[in-house]
Amino acid sequence: MKNSEELFERAKLVAPGGVHSPVRSFSSVGGTPIFFKSAKGAHLYDVDGKEYIDFCLSFGPLILGHRDDEIEEVVKETVSTAWSFGACEPYSLELAEFIVNEIPEVEKIRFVNSGTEAVMSALRVARAATGREKVLKFDGCYHGHLDSLLVKSGSGLAGEASSDSAGISKNQYQDTLVLKLDDESSVEKLFQEHGNEIACLAIEPLPANYGLLIQRKSFIESIIKIAKKNGTIVLFDEVISGFRVSMKGMTEHFEEKPDLITYGKIIGGGFPVGAYAGRKDLMDLVAPAGPVYQAGTLSGNPIGMRAGLAVLKKLKEKHLHIELANKTAQFTNRLEKLINEHSEKQISIARFASIFWIHEKTNSTIRKIDDIPETHKENFAKLFHKFLANGIYLAPSGYEVGFFSTAHNDRIMDRFFEKAEKALR
Ligand SMILES: *Cc1c(COP(=O)(O)O)cnc(C)c1O
User: Fold this and answer.
1) Are residues 27 and 159 in the same domain?
2) How many domains does the chain have?
3) How many other β-carbons are positioned within 10 Å of the β-carbon of residue 147?
4) Less packed terminus of the chain by CB within 10 Å, N or C?
């Protein structure tokens, strides 16, 4: 703790809030953020030498845990081959072919460097394809920090947006419409009024950036139908769910399919890679094939491309998703029981595949942000610090989800439950 405190004091002098991404500052849970020095498998090691079992996993990318041996081998080999070409190379081709072969809705793909960039570019394609300006998003879905989607519901008319950040010009979000999740009738109504103006309906098919808000299948399917009937492009933002829930991601859970999909996180195997993908006719609008400009100096960099491909191949060849989901279910069931035995405040753990979210027990499934109890943030902060003190690292915010990896094996689970019991006692 001592070294982290010193480093945080120094960091605050040179970086806003001492961090390079806000949640890392512990502002949501209080206290001083831990500075980590190294990581391996399911473990993090801080600058004081303390070990933690990690359920944040860099907010999702590390589905095989930290520095999986096989992936590390590929990364080392790549580092001694090339770092960046800014030219054509076979590595991005191999990753693109693998994904196109794997996911029926992906006919063509373009790699970028982050999830934010992927979504920003996908919206540009949707606008170009439709000649329309408006974009519909849902409260509680996060699509990165691009100006036009950093919005929440306004207080006025249904669909009205208000900015969720300072420094965003009204022009940037005046074409963004915002609705609540889990309510297809409001989507129907909005399309009746604005249907022929909406270029894109963007949604996280598994919203996992404001807690885990598992949607009804019928909600997702009916809004896709409404959008398509109105000539609106449907964008599935699978930056967090892609390759996490299964090889094909959330698209395989629905009869109705998206036109465009964005990826990030797992796709780069722990390195900065994002991608937008989908129907061939839409992707062929992108330069140099078409008029939609989008470029990137480090796009398709060989380290991210080869690490990403190695991770995806390993997931597929060893059928790791099913086992991972089962292990996660065992873990969350046992943890839910343990916490509820030791606490008056009863909790539930929402789970989808290897993504989980600990929250106050509620009478019905939480599907939209209004359903999250007001005391949630405070209760989570208490649990977070009890766990942290005992060597368990959860994402430092009650609105972030937890992740399980293939490195979280039975031996580590036994250790986890010893630590957790001590923490809760
Ligand atoms: C993480 C995330 C993003 C943003 O990705 P960055 O790489 O952080 O820019 C966008 N959409 C979803 C669904 C995400 O989970």
Assistant:
1) no
2) 2
3) 16
4) C
Look at residue 157 in the predicted model and tell me its pLDDT. Answer: 77
32-37 own/partner pairs: CB under 8 Å, 24+ apart: 32/1, 32/4, 32/5, 32/8, 33/4, 33/8, 33/396, 34/1, 34/4, 34/388, 34/393, 35/3, 35/4, 35/7, 35/8
Q: Is 147 a catalytic residue?
A: no
**What atom of ligand 1 comes closest to residue 116's alpha carbon?**
9
Q: Are residues 301 and 170 in the same domain?
A: yes
**369 phi and psi, to 5 degrees?**
-65, -30
Among residues 298, 287, 244, 284, the alpha carbon closest in space to that of 266 is found at 244
Which pLDDT belongs to residue 155? 76
Enter the pTM of the model. 0.98
- With a 6 Å cutoff on the Cβ, whether 212 touches ligand 1 is no
Q: What pairing do the DSSP bridges indicate for beta strands 151-153 and 161-163?
A: antiparallel
| Distance, CA of 158 to CA of 190 (rounded, Å) | 8
Cite the beta strand spans of 72-160 per DSSP E: 108-112, 134-138, 151-153
Phi, psi of 120 (to 5 degrees): -55, -45
Q: In the structure encoding, which two tokens stand for residue 55, read together? A: 């359920």
52, 54, 134, 142: which one is catalytic? 142
- For residue 159, is it left (φ>0), alpha (ψ between -120 and 50) or beta? left
Note whether 267 and 243 are within 8 A (CB).
yes
Annotated catalytic residue: which of 137, 237, 368, 399?
237
Domain end among 264, 287, 317: 317
Instruction: Give the chain's residues under pLDDT 70.
Output: none
264 Cβ closer than 6 Å to some ligand 1 atom: yes
Residue nearest to atom 8 of ligand 1 (CA): 115
Is ligand 1 within 6 A of the CB of residue 18? no
Q: Which domain holds residue 342?
A: 2-55+319-424
**Residue 274 CA, closest ligand 1 atom number:** 7
Instruction: Establish if 60 belongs to a structural domain.
Output: no
